[in-house]
Amino acid sequence: MRSITKIDRKSYSVVTEISFYNLLHTPLDCAIAELIEKILGGGYRALVLVGSEERAEILCNVLWTYDATSFLPHGTACDANPEMQPVWITSDDENHNLADILILTDGATADEPMKYNRCLDVFDGQNEAAAAAARLRWSAYKAHGHALTYWQQKKRGGWERQV
User: Fold this and answer.
1) pLDDT greater than 50 at residue 12
2) Which residue in 14, 46, 108, 129 has the most C-beta neighbors within 10 A?
3) How far is 104 from 98, CA to CA, in rounded Å?
């Protein structure tokens, strides 16, 4: 997940893989729930960075009702003990739950994505403003030397890596 990139002969830097997920067919909150399922299934912890604490509570409610046959353990600022939560939803750019994977939504950005093994930037490709903002984030991450991948949502579910 992390790779070492040579900067010069004397120093090395850890580079985080940042994957952009372009939503075309599924509402944002449902797509995030699906990604969280995969993250938890892989034994990882996630921090979901949202635009506001109000959005955190909305996403929290979606995760409780997303699928009646599954349970996605998570918490927000309204809950205690973030370090015990495998998924922490917040607008605060701090890794309170020692997450391996950072999920960015609502155009949120992290000051130090390199603190995570992987970063998923999820955006609504049907919203031109959100897509334009994602392109700007892509350029900024590329300028900082992060390893970037781009995934586009398939019509029948799932993701397809674009080259």
Assistant:
1) no
2) 46
3) 16
CA distance linking residue 108 with residue 32, whole number of Å: 14
Query: What does the alpha-carbon distance between residue 86 and residue 35 come to, in Å, rounded to a whole number?
Result: 13
**Which candidate, 83, 91, 85, 24, places its Cα nearest to that of 59?**
91
- What are the beta bridge partners of residue 94? none
Closest C-alpha among 103, 128, 93 to residue 44: 103
What are 123's two structure tokens? 């955006």
CB atoms within 10 A of CB 138: 16
Q: What tokens were used for 5? A: 């990139």
80 Cβ contact list (under 8 Å, min separation 6)? none
Tokens standing for 98?
A: 């020692």
- Rounded CA-CA distance 151/54 in Å is 28
